């Protein structure tokens, strides 16, 4: 049983349609795949429809952008009731914040002498429901400014770079409560990835666990073996489920294949029994 609980489609900043993503999962031998687009549930119906045809089990999910101790933290939410009003209101607010920061990012780039228009970004984003920095990166690639998303982040739109603007995001504890109220199972995505390690020490994880957190995404490409061992021990101590996922973004994230990090059947079952409501 290969269970990959973290993947993105072009509905956010992946590069394949939900249908193509599910087909790719079938090809990769993935049995269970969570579609966890950033701050949107728009791709879930298509993915679930494709799942039936392609013999992959799709877990509906969201990767919610949140804020904790002034740090960007991502929260995976499995099996949300997509009709839940408070949930959709929170996601809508985050997506509006994503749109509103684009002109600010472009202004920062213009000051650095790089002229990209909002239309360029829109074109790069295609039909994405959730607009992100990777789409600005794609527009920079299309304009010949950089060769790849990686290079765009490293030189222009990563933290501290001229085109970087933080997006507004709900507080992590509020996001945990909102997704849990919508029947979803909240799991911290890559807790020690990209700069959030200090903000998510064991005391913080204990506090989040008391706030309703169900699991930690231990097996993720941002974590080395040492991090994984420590996070697994913390999860055990706090009664949190240790999960794993590839964080696949199609052609948008080099070196990442579907199923390259995964969740054990035992952990998957432990999440499943925490489901609150059938969507
Ligand atoms: P945003 O949420 O719009 O600020 O953009 C964050 C997204 O950019 C995440 O989904 C990451 O997968 C992606 N990302 C972050 N750093 C990089 C990088 N160095 N190269 C490519 N994608 C990145
Ligand atoms: Zn992403
Ligand atoms: Fe993430
Ligand atoms: Fe992700």
Q: How would you state the average pLDDT, rounded?
A: 97
Measured between the Cα atoms of the first and last residue, the distance is 24 Å
CATH class assignment of the domain at 3-81 and 186-277: Alpha Beta
Beta-sheet strand percentage? 15-25%
| Rough outline | globular
Helix fraction by DSSP (H/I, runs of at least 4): 40-55%
Structural class by helix and strand composition: alpha/beta
CATH fold topology of the domain at 3-81 and 186-277: TIM Barrel
Which small-molecule ligands are present, each listed once?
adenosine monophosphate, zinc ion, fe (iii) ion
Count the DSSP helices: 10
Rg (C-alpha, Å): 18 Å
pLDDT under 50 segments (min length 5)? none
CATH architecture of the domain at 3-81 and 186-277: Alpha-Beta Barrel
Number-wise, the strands total 7
Q: The biggest beta sheet, please?
A: 7 strands, mixed
The succession of helices and strands, N to C, reads: EHEHEEHHHHHEHEHEH
Strands of the widest sheet, in order across it, are 1-2-3-4-5-6-7
Q: State the CATH superfamily name of the domain at 3-81 and 186-277.
A: Metal-dependent hydrolases
Write the layout of secondary structure elements.
Elements: E1 3-4, H1 18-27, E2 32-38, H2 44-54, E3 57-68, E4 71-78, H3 85-111, H4 118-125, H5 133-142, H6 149-157, H7 172-181, E5 185-188, H8 202-210, E6 215-219, H9 225-238, E7 241-244, H10 265-272
Parallel strand pairs: 1-2, 2-3, 5-6, 6-7
Antiparallel strand pairs: 3-4, 4-5
Helix pairs in contact: 1-2, 4-5, 5-6
The structure holds adenosine monophosphate, zinc ion and fe (iii) ion (2 copies).
């Amino acid at each position: 049983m290969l269970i990959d609980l973290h993947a993105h489609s072009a509905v956010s900043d992946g590069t394949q349609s939900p249908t193509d993503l599910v087909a790719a999962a079938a090809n990769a031998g993935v049995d269970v795949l969570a579609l966890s687009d950033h701050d949107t549930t728009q791709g879930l119906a298509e993915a679930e429809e494709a799942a039936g045809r392609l013999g992959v089990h799709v877990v509906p999910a969201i990767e919610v952008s949140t804020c904790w101790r002034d740090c960007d933290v991502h929260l995976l939410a499995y099996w949300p009731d997509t009709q839940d009003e408070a949930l959709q209101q929170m996601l809508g607010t985050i997506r509006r914040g994503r749109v509103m920061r684009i002109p600010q990012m472009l202004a920062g780039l213009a000051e650095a002498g790089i002229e990209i228009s909002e239309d360029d970004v829109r074109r790069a984003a295609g039909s994405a429901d959730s607009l992100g920095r990777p789409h600005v990166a794609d527009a920079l690639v299309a304009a010949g400014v950089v060769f790849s998303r990686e290079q765009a982040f490293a030189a222009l739109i990563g933290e501290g770079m001229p085109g970087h603007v933080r997006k507004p995001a709900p507080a992590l504890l509020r996001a945990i409560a909102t997704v849990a109220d919508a029947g979803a199972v909240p799991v911290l995505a890559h807790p020690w990835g990209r700069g959030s390690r200090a903000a998510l020490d064991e005391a913080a994880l204990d506090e989040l666990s008391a706030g309703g957190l169900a699991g930690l995404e231990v097996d993720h490409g941002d974590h080395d073996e040492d991090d994984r061992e420590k996070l697994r021990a913390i999860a055990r101590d706090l009664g949190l489920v240790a999960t794993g996922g590839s964080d696949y973004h199609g052609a948008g994230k080099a070196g990442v294949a579907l199923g390259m990090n995964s969740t054990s059947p035992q952990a998957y079952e432990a999440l499943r029994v925490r489901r609150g409501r059938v969507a």
